[in-house]
Amino acid sequence: MTFIDAVTLDVADPTAAQHFCTTAFGLDTQIRLRASEAPSTGFRGFTLTLTVSQPADVRALVDSALEAGATSLKPAMKSLWGYGGVVRAPDGTIWKVATSAKKDTGPTTRKIDEIVLLLGVADVIASKRFYVEQGLAVGKSFGRVYVEFAAGEGPVKLALYRRRALAKDVGVSADGSGSHRLAIGGEAGPFTDPDGFAWEAASLTPAP
């Protein structure tokens, strides 16, 4: 089964971006960083979601992200689907921290259960078909709205959502152009998907 081996963010200052990831979320090798000045304006078409077990962990991670220099796009609050908040990192990456739980059941742990790379796509059905052809296994599918692929042994799970719906969910305009400033590493690569997201062969991704 094909899975994501690495997610690499193109950033202007990898050292600063690494400091943010470590300080805000306690992430180390799960997300890779490399220097790039690729032009990009507006919404980059993807978000990174950290799923946790309870609202207290959402608040703790969102607060630490803000203290590390992020800006708030949506404050941590209860929603129809659970509890979550959204921030934009200093390098421009949009991060969502969320849980399906609406009440705390224990002390704050800041433990991250899953990291999900959510791609905003023009046609969920077409993109789902494309990724299945590349060897990814579907975990959950909700018609033309949302698709989640099995994570396999990779550190990051891949999911698809309609671009405009994703932008609305995180509180930004769907308009954007230029580089996604993202590269996905895996054994299925190299290829570029229907929405311009580039996969690289796992052996070509930079070492953590």
From TrEMBL:
SUPFAM superfamilies reported for this sequence: Glyoxalase/Bleomycin resistance protein/Dihydroxybiphenyl dioxygenase
GO molecular function: lyase activity
Transmembrane parts of this sequence: none
Keyword terms: Lyase
Record-given protein name: Lactoylglutathione lyase
Native source organism of the sequence: Streptomyces clavifer
